[in-house]
Each structure stands twice: as structure tokens, then as C-alpha cells.
TrEMBL record:
GO molecular function terms listed in the Swiss-Prot or TrEMBL record: ATP binding; ATP hydrolysis activity
SMART domains for this protein: AAA (SM00382)
Annotated CDD domains: ABC_NikE_OppD_transporters
Keyword Nucleotide-binding: yes
UniProt protein name: ABC transporter ATP-binding protein
Species whose genome carries this gene: Metarhizobium album
Family: Belongs to the ABC transporter superfamily.
Xref: InterPro entries: AAA+_ATPase, ABC_transp_ATP-bind, ABC_transporter-like_ATP-bd, ABC_transporter-like_CS, P-loop_NTPase
Domain ABC transporter: 6-249
Keywords from the UniProt entry: ATP-binding, Nucleotide-binding, Transport
């Protein structure tokens, strides 16, 4: 069994200071190297908060977080900085995280130089060209601004940007929610392929169980800021232990008929 990369024990998060509202009530989670873990639950159950707490983007009021064998729960930001490259995030709305005034070239090249992953601009550009091919985007995209791309293309840029930094861990929060079903399938398949190639560990947040089922090895079901159920994806989907999980499973909407699903090259089923 692979070793744990990112673990949290007894995580609590309170929004609004001491007299605020507690939204995580002692969450335990462990993500192994190379593993894709799903975090699922109703709106407001605390999925995004848990993701942000794991990345040290929101303070925790109790519990501990370890990354790569080191406790990071209260690590000062200056000491977190070297770890930040190794922990990447892909957002639901890439528009909000891509500078609208920058070209895609600049958006992809700059972080490589900033983190010293490329010696010079030429080397950075060569890497960018390679990753662009990997996420199946034409080189012509490089001279465009984010708003000149489609939603699916923007999401591929977000993935490319994260992958370029060779992280150990990627948090993906509802990254396909805004996309149509066939674009969802392509983006998920791409991300899953990259995670296998790069040995990435991923936490995949989604309220959509069919998305979780397509890409995750294990799943955590969150309810009111607590882990309601956890286990191998296949096991939880086949035999949910909790009534809450069963209700979530029953709520998976019936899919619309889409001829693309019959095409094995684009089907979600072969994403794994
Ligand atoms: N910055 C904040 N300040 C105060 N309360 C917050 C803040 N962010 C989230 N909350 C509250 O914390 C709870 C958990 O929110 P969170 O965003 O983690 O849920 P979620 O499971 O990601 O939901 P969704 O599926 O809608 O994205 C909610 O009740 C929410 O209103
Ligand atoms: Mg959320």
C-alpha cells in the first residue's frame, strides 16, 4: 500500500472567529501518493472548506495536517511557500484564476521561470509547447487571451498550468460543473491520464457522483462537516453503508441521451 502524502486528523474550521460558525467538525482524511480521492456531499456540507483547509488556505481551529511526512498545520506562510509549488489547485471557473490581460503563453511560461523550473524563456517555451500538446490544444492558443477560449479549453489551460509545475498533489474543486457532459468526459479523461503519467495524488471535489465514479479510487462522503462514509469507490457505490449516501446515489440524475457516449474515444467509462 502506497504511503500517505496528505493527511488530516480531527480537522475543525470555524468561520467568523471564536464566536463564529463551525463548519468542519473533526474530519479525518488520508490521501496516498498517486491516488485520486473523491470528496462528495450536498451543497454546504463543507467540501470546499475541507479542500481549502488541506491546502492551508483557511485556518483550522483544531486538528492537524501533514504533507509528505511533515506537520504543516500552523507552518508560517514563508515556510509553506516552498511547498506551494508541490500543491496545486484547479478551479471551477478558470476565468477567475487566469489573468484576463495576459496571453496564454505568458500565463504558462511565467510560473515556470518564477519557480526556477526552467533555466530561460526558451526552455520554458519548449515545456509549454509539450504540455499544450498533452492537453490537446493547438499552439495558436498561446497568443490568445483567456476570454478568447472556450470553457473546456480554459479548463485545459488550468490543468496544463498546474501540471507544468510538477506537483505531488492537485486539488480540483468542481472543475467540470460548468461544462457540457461530453466536454466533462474529455477534461476528466485528460486529468486522469496526467495524474497517472505524473504519479499525482488528487482530491476531486464534486457534488456529482457520476463524476466521482469516473475518476476516483476512494471516496469520502461529507455531511454537515463530518465524514459520513469513506471507502473504495466501487464498494461505496455498490454497497453504501449510510442511508445518506444511498439518498445521494439515488439522486444521480438520469443521463440525457448523447450519441457521443457510444464513442469509446470520448466515453467517461474509459477515463480510468
Ligand atoms: N468565507 C466564509 N465565511 C463564512 N461562512 C462560510 C464561508 N465559506 C463557506 N461558509 C459556510 O460554510 C459551510 C460550508 O461551505 P462550503 O463552501 O465548504 O460547502 P461546499 O460543500 O463546498 O458547498 P458547494 O457544493 O455549494 O460548493 C456553508 O454553510 C457555507 O455557508
Ligand atoms: Mg464548494
Amino acid at each position: 500500500m502506497a504511503e500517505n502524502l496528505l493527511t488530516a486528523t480531527g480537522l475543525e474550521v470555524i468561520y467568523g472567529g471564536r464566536r463564529g460558525v463551525k463548519v468542519l467538525h473533526g474530519v479525518d482524511i488520508a490521501i496516498r501518493r498517486g491516488e485520486t480521492v473523491g470528496i462528495v456531499g450536498e451543497s454546504g456540507s463543507g467540501k470546499t472548506t475541507l479542500g481549502r483547509a488541506l491546502l492551508r488556505l483557511v485556518d483550522v481551529s483544531a486538528g492537524s495536517i501533514h504533507f509528505d511526512g511533515r506537520e504543516i498545520t500552523h507552518l508560517p506562510e514563508a515556510e509553506m511557500r516552498p511547498l506551494r509549488r508541490r500543491i496545486q489547485m484547479i478551479f471551477q471557473d478558470p476565468m477567475a484564476s487566469l489573468n484576463p490581460r495576459h496571453t496564454i503563453r505568458r500565463i504558462l511560461v511565467e510560473p515556470l521561470l518564477l519557480h526556477g523550473l526552467a533555466k530561460n524563456a526558451a526552455e520554458a517555451e519548449a515545456r509549454v509547447a509539450k504540455i499544450l500538446e498533452r492537453v490537446t490544444l493547438p499552439a495558436a492558443c498561446l497568443d490568445r487571451n483567456p476570454h478568447e477560449l472556450s470553457g473546456g479549453q480554459r479548463q485545459r489551460i488550468g490543468i496544463a498550468r498546474a501540471a507544468l509545475l510538477e506537483p505531488d498533489f492537485v486539488l480540483a474543486d468542481e472543475i467540470v460543473s460548468g461544462l457540457d457532459v461530453s466536454t466533462q468526459a474529455q477534461v476528466l479523461k485528460l486529468l486522469k491520464g496526467l495524474s497517472v503519467d505524473l504519479g499525482l495524488a488528487m482530491a476531486f471535489i464534486s457534488h456529482d457522483l457520476s463524476v466521482i465514479r469516473a475518476v476516483c479510487d476512494r471516496v469520502y462522503v461529507l455531511r454537515f462537516g463530518k465524514v459520513e462514509e469513506e471507502g473504495a469507490c466501487a464498494e461505496v457505490f455498490a454497497n453504501p453503508k449510510s442511508d445518506y449516501t444511498r439518498i445521494l446515489l439515488d439522486a444521480i440524475p438520469l443521463p440525457e441521451i448523447n450519441p457521443g457516449w457510444l464513442d469509446p474515444k470520448t466515453g467517461i467509462e474509459d477515463a480510468a
